From TrEMBL, chain A:
A single GO cellular-component term on record: membrane protein complex
RNA-binding found in the keyword field: no
Residue ranges annotated for the ABC transporter domain, each copy included: 16-253
Keyword entries, A-Z: ATP-binding, Nucleotide-binding, Transport
Record bears the keyword Transport: yes
Molecular function as annotated in GO: ATP binding; ATP hydrolysis activity; transmembrane transporter activity
Name used for this protein in its record: ABC transporter ATP-binding protein
Short name of one Pfam family: ABC_tran
Domain of life: Bacteria
From TrEMBL, chain B:
UniProt keyword Transmembrane present: yes
Organism of this sequence: Streptomyces fuscichromogenes
PANTHER family: ABC TRANSPORTER PERMEASE YTRF, MEMBRANE COMPONENT OF TRANSPORTER-RELATED
Transmembrane segments: 265-291, 318-344, 364-382, 410-431, 437-459, 493-516, 724-753, 778-798, 818-838
Topology in membrane: Multi-pass membrane protein
Superkingdom of origin: Bacteria
Subcellular location(s) per record: Cell membrane
Primary location group: membrane
Name of protein: Membrane protein
Keywords: Cell membrane, Membrane, Transmembrane, Transmembrane helix
Length: 262, 855
């Protein structure tokens, strides 16, 4: 671990970093490479989008960076900590304390109300939430009058806002959002993207979002394009049209549909 | 559609496994008890059919006592010669066979069976019907020689040449074992001692001119029935019972049947509990499977399947499950019967496993129970499945059926509960035992049904309280487990119901038995004044020799004998009541404290008088001084005056209804040859209790059948008798708990599957495996404790009402065994933890990514 610490300096503006990240499914002849020796740096305080056609490995990349999935080869650091090689228990704690999550299908706990869902990661850890910060998050997301509601009593957009608040509440080093607008109509989707943008600009958070929607990607600071398990391109200050144009080139390259990986 | 059903059945076979196990258990008990009782019945029918004489002449059995009296009824031996003269009789024999003996070896140990089966002394008279043959040694010749059966000799290590002591009613004598007789048929478990016919009657009955029965051989071509008629015409049927071989075999089998029926009913009790609890498990499984498959069922409906088809497909699955469960259960039942037969062998009843009988009724019953129960249990869930709308296929379906109102349940549960409560209240205030008992039964059934129906309604309030401390104690994990238990009240209610049923039974029985123990204690304290009681632990009477020896022991001041006899009394209200009366020596006041409403002990025990329980007397319009016609065994009658009315409890539950008692001289007069059942002993002045005890123990050393007890020992003996009943209940409870645990495991396992995505998310945002396991464990504990609290509350009510019924029989004390109840609640929490082991492990092993992506 000492070499890892040396290679992954704690404070160089990088929230997460991967080197030679490889993920293979299966073994031998039938092995499929979901990630093929990927090097990536996620800049702190920025909104990074990961795009790519179905099966390009974008979700796998996110899962590996978040410590949800094991890697076949390569190294990943979160801040100054190398997470590849951590044991299950340490990974669980890392996810709990340093990472926030948003999923396509909200994934709120139906038995808990909005407020309880938001503070759940800190409750699990047995930590007191930072009340000032929590108030700020709740007000930013406009959830003040919804705190006592159960998920079943909330609309999809409101549920995703609760999920967003949960991801922000513990002020994690990094927030991973997996297709956060996938299950929302365009208006609610825009709202959520606006909140993620605000989280970065006003609250100083770091967000990594996986999406296949060029419009959503346009809200980010940087788009990374994945194809066949490699990062093939990057685009600073993207616009929806530019992203769409770039994506079209993938379609020409490999046909419009591949096997869905998730 | 059938194809889809089969596929679905196979796809869910893992989830149906626990339900199948519940069916297997109930069917196994049903099949096992049927096979066992068929086998035993066939074995003994054969035994008695082959050993019964063509016609048997017995003394008239006019009054049968449920309390053993030790008296042997006889016929004159000369009757054999008289019967031999009847046309068509080929031969007769005067049998001597008694059970009122004890045989002890050189170390003062009884050689009789320890299982409650009798020791029989009989004359050695070998015919083609004898169940034994001589396998070593020679036949007994004259006094002082005897044969012993091989099984007993083997078990008690008696060899040819050993000397045994036979304590018979006429007197104790010693015999040398000169030969061993081996059973050629099934040994029913008794110990047999054979004496020379020349001396048997004198030594066992006290007179060479008596016999216990006459066996008659029919001549060729004369049927048993015809011969019975002719013998009856010759000797009269007024004083004798005549039986053909068939009748004799049936009556012998019926005598043995009582014991075997107990085993059969215990087994059927187990089957009943297993079935009852299994129903909850199956209902829950099918409800959950249907909830989980809402979208799939909706799709079937959207594709054009009508409601009937959906319902039928669910029921077909249930029938398939029932068939599989019944088949396995039948196999398990055969195994269970084998085990029981082996167990009987250990008790000395040598049944042969190769002669196992599987009648056609057994598989029929097995499949009817297995398939029937599954079908019935799945019917409601199937109807619910049929109401799934085609829209469910399209909706982003969360699990259906969670928030449906429980109004129907509330109304039905309320009505049934009110009826049950009314019945219980009625039983508590009733004054007649018979009506109180039937009201109690009705109340128990109705309140049980009401609680099962209304259980889901109680889930919210009770679990709020039970799990109220969870959030504070266990943080968010505790909060989530409490909420999960509240999530689907129907499911939680049904899961807990399985545990509830068993614990309600236990609660009720433990209150009843604790109350009985306490009542007996109080009664013993109140009435028993003797220093010591000499008694058999099974309350069997003993020979007069023991009484004489006790009287002769140094330091004994007073001995009061107690002796029972069956009687029938004709009462002023026209009723004829058959009961057992007790005879006492006149100094009974010095060993017992009896309060009288009228008259006194002297008046009751005077010749030609009797005493009676005052309540019984009032019920039947008997007054002090009334003269009643009393019948004694052997057709003897007497007019007796009621000399005293006592407060003594009537004890109708113990065969002594009416609490009749008189002087022991009356018993001796009408029932000669009876034996004493108890001796109440007071010490002489100047002798300490310890001294007397050790002297009595020395005196009684050669008589292993009786023991000396002081009041504390006597209480313990009574408690032990009550405890036997409790052990049975605990065994039933054990089975109910096993199945209830299966139910909790089942519910949790299916819930875990249902909540896969949620669990995945919790793991993703940092819930440790240990915390996840704890969450499921706590949910399980709260469900189990909910069931326990509900069950015990119900059981307490039942127990208190049962005590009210018992109070009518004089058991007036109420005792609630709080220790047992608290132990059961703690035990149920442990049950919850055990039940959660596998589901929790399974949940914590889930792959986080796969779980989040789970549909």
């Amino acid at each position: 671990m000492s070499t890892a610490a040396a290679e992954g300096p704690a404070d160089d503006g990088t929230a997460a970093r991967a080197r030679g990240l490889t993920k293979a499914y299966g073994a031998g002849e039938t092995a499929v490479l979901a990630l093929d020796s990927v090097d990536v740096d996620i800049a702190r305080g920025r909104f990074t989008a990961v795009m790519g056609p179905s099966g390009s490995g974008k979700s796998t990349l996110m899962h590996c960076l978040a410590g949800l999935d094991t890697v076949s080869a390569g190294q990943i650091w979160l801040g100054g900590t190398e997470i590849t090689g951590l044991r299950e228990r340490e990974l669980t704690r890392l996810r709990r304390d340093r990472i926030g999550f948003m999923f396509q299908s909200f994934n709120l706990i139906p038995t808990l109300n909005a407020a309880e869902n938001i503070t759940l990661p800190m409750d699990i850890a047995g930590r007191k939430p930072d009340e000032k910060w929590l108030d700020q998050v709740i007000d930013t997301l406009g959830l003040r009058d919804r705190l006592k509601h159960r998920p079943a009593q909330l609309s999809g957009g409101q549920q995703q806002r609760v999920a967003c608040a949960r991801a922000l509440a513990s002020r994690p080093e990094l927030i991973f959002a997996d297709e956060p607008t996938g299950n929302l109509d365009s208006r609610a989707g825009l709202e959520v993207l606006g909140f993620l943008r605000e989280a970065v600009d006003q609250l100083g958070q770091t967000v990594v979002m996986v999406t296949h929607d060029p419009g959503a990607a346009a809200h980010s600071d940087l788009v990374l394009f994945l194809a066949d398990g490699r990062i093939v391109d990057r685009m600073e200050d993207p616009t929806a049209d530019a992203v769409l144009e770039r994506m079209k080139r993938f379609d020409v390259g490999r046909g419009s549909s591949g096997p869905e990986e998730d | 559609m059938l194809k889809a059903t089969l596929r679905s059945f196979l796809a869910h076979k893992g989830r149906l496994m626990l339900s199948a196990l519940a069916i297997v258990l109930s069917v196994a008990f049903v099949a096992g008890s049927l096979i066992f009782s068929d086998t035993v019945t066939r074995t003994f029918d054969r035994l008695f059919a082959s050993t019964s004489a063509d016609v048997t002449v017995d003394p008239k059995q006019d009054l049968k006592s449920s309390v053993p009296t030790g008296a042997v009824q006889t016929v004159p031996a000369a009757l054999a010669g008289q019967v031999a003269k009847v046309a068509g009789v080929a031969g007769t024999h005067a049998d001597v066979s008694v059970q009122n003996i004890v045989v002890v070896d050189g170390h003062n140990k009884s050689v009789g069976p320890t299982t409650g089966a009798p020791t029989i002394a009989t004359d050695w008279y070998l015919t083609h019907r004898s169940p034994v043959k001589l396998t070593s040694g020679h036949a007994p010749q004259g006094a002082g020689q005897a044969l012993l059966d091989a099984d007993t000799a083997d078990k008690k290590h008696v060899r040819i040449g050993d000397t045994l002591t036979v304590q018979a009613q006429p007197g104790t004598f010693r015999v040398e074992i000169v030969g061993i007789a081996t059973f050629t048929t099934t040994n029913p478990g008794a110990a047999l001692v054979f004496l020379d016919p020349a001396v048997a009657a004198k030594e066992l009955l006290g007179s060479p001119g008596r016999a216990t029965s006459i066996s008659v051989d029919a001549a060729q071509g004369v049927t048993d029935a015809v011969l019975k008629g002719r013998i009856g015409a010759a000797i009269g049927t007024g004083t004798y019972d005549l039986k053909t071989a068939d009748e004799q075999a049936k009556s012998s089998a019926a005598d043995l049947g009582g014991f075997l029926d107990v085993i059969k009913y215990v087994m059927l009790g187990f089957a009943g509990i297993a079935t009852l609890v299994g129903v909850f498990l199956i209902v829950n499984t099918f409800s959950m499977l249907i909830a989980q498959r809402t979208r799939e069922l909706g799709l079937l409906r959207a594709l054009g399947a009508d409601r009937r088809q959906v319902r039928r497909s669910v029921l077909t699955e249930a029938v398939l499950l029932g068939l599989v469960g019944s088949t396995l259960g039948l196999g398990a039942g055969i195994g269970l019967a084998l085990g029981l037969i082996k167990l009987m062998t250990a008790f000395g009843m040598n049944l042969k496993t190769t002669e196992m009988v599987i009648g056609w009724g057994t598989p029929v019953a097995a499949y009817v129970v297995g398939v029937g129960v599954t079908f019935v249990a799945a019917y409601l869930p199937a109807r619910r499945a049929a109401t799934v709308s085609p829209m469910a296929a399209l909706a982003d379906a969360e699990i259906a059926g969670i928030g449906k109102p429980l109004r129907t349940r509330a109304i039905v549960g309320g009505i049934v509960g009110a009826l049950g409560a009314a019945a219980l209240a009625g039983c508590a205030t009733a004054s007649k035992t018979a009506s109180a008992a039937s009201l109690l039964g009705l109340g128990v059934v109705l309140t049980l049904i009401a609680t099962v129906i209304a259980g889901p309604l109680l889930v919210r309030p009770v679990i709020r309280v039970l799990g109220g401390a969870f959030p504070a104690l266990f943080g968010p994990v505790g909060r989530m487990s409490q909420r999960n238990a509240l999530r689907n009240p129907r499911r939680t209610g049904a899961t807990a119901a399985a545990l509830m049923v068993g614990l309600a039974l236990v609660g009720g029985m433990s209150v009843a038995s604790a109350s009985m123990s306490k009542s007996f204690d109080q009664q013993i304290d109140r009435t028993l004044g003797a220093d010591f009681i000499v008694q058999n632990s099974n309350f069997l009477p003993f020979t007069g020799e023991i009484t004489d020896k006790v009287r002769g022991t140094a330091g004994v001041g007073l001995v009061v004998r107690q002796r029972f006899t069956p009687v029938a009394v004709r009462l002023p209200d026209g009723k004829r009541v058959t009961t057992t009366a007790a005879g006492y020596d006149s100094q009974v006041d010095q060993v017992a404290h009896v309060a009288y409403k009228g008259g006194d002990t002297a008046a009751a025990l005077a010749p030609g008088s009797l005493g009676m329980n005052v309540t019984f007397a009032e019920d039947h319009k008997v007054r002090l001084g009334s003269v009643l016609a009393v019948e004694f065994p052997g057709g003897k009658r007497a007019e007796m005056k009621v000399g005293a009315l006592s407060d003594q409890d009537s004890g109708s539950g113990f065969g002594t209804q009416g609490g009749l008692f008189f002087g022991i001289a009356t018993v001796q007069k009408y029932v000669p040859g009876g034996q004493d059942s108890s001796l109440y002993v007071n010490r002489a002045p100047g002798t300490t209790a310890d001294q007397l005890r050790s002297r009595l123990e020395r005196t009684l050393a050669p008589y292993p059948q009786v023991q000396v007890r002081d009041q504390a020992d006597y209480k313990k003996l009574v408690h032990d008798q009550i405890a036997v009943l409790l052990y049975l209940v605990y065994a039933l409870l054990g089975l109910a708990i096993v199945i209830a645990v299966l139910g909790v495991v089942n519910t949790l396992a299916l819930s875990v599957v249902e909540r896969t995505r949620e669990i995945g998310l919790l793991r993703a945002i940092g819930l440790a495996r240990r915390q996840l396991r704890r969450m499921i464990r706590l949910e399980s504990v709260v469900i189990a404790v909910f069931g326990a609290v509900l069950g015990l509350a119900l059981g307490l009510v039942w127990g208190v009402c049962t005590q009210q019924v018992l109070a009518l029989q004089g058991l007036k004390a109420l005792a609630v065994p709080w220790g047992t109840i608290i132990a059961v609640v703690i035990g149920s929490a442990v049950v919850g933890i055990v039940a959660a082991l596998l589901p929790a492990l399974r949940a914590s092993r889930m792959n986080v990514l796969a779980a989040i992506a789970h549909e």
